[in-house]
Amino acid sequence: STLMDSRACVKMAAAAWASGFLNALLHTANTFSIPLCQGNTVDQFFCEIPQILKLSCSDSYLREAGVTVVSVCLFFGCFIFIVLSYVQIFTAVLRIPSEQGQHKAFSMCLSHLAVVSLFVSTGLFAYLKPPSLSSPALDFVVAVLYVVVP
């Protein structure tokens, strides 16, 4: 309660919900506006955007670029916010006088940081890997690591 009051918590939650909704809305609108000429069967465990784009028969470069730019901006905004939050958390933890208290606080933070790192790294790999590395088996493993494990 000394680092964050209820108004700040509500603002952060609203920002997270709004950015997630905006990103989902853009991806959904883009996906439903793409004409599919190779059927609608996705050879994937999850219906991810790269697999849907493989079914498209039109050149959707401008759509992809626009959605990618907005997604990257949202991602970096969230990433910077998470980094700044962790800097504040770590400085507050380092001010705890007892070593046992610091250890307990760091162990809680590091588990969350590990999950966030796994989510971000597998998500980046899933969407930014070169097409030459794409195979159904690898896409499946990355999708499971990206969606299920975190």
Structural account:
Helix 1 runs antiparallel to helix 3, helix 3 (61-94) runs antiparallel to helix 4 (99-128) and helix 4 runs antiparallel to helix 5. The model has no long low-confidence stretch (mean pLDDT 79). The protein has helices spanning 6-32, 49-54, 61-94, 99-128, 136-147. It has 150 residues and is mainly α. It is elongated. The chain is built from 5 helices and no strands. It has a domain at 59-131. Keywords: Cell membrane, G-protein coupled receptor, Membrane, Olfaction, Receptor, Sensory transduction, Transducer, Transmembrane, Transmembrane helix.
Low-confidence runs (pLDDT<50, min 5 residues)?
none
Question: What's the average pLDDT?
Answer: 79
**What shape does the CA trace take?**
elongated
Provide the helix percentage: over 70%
Number of helices: 5
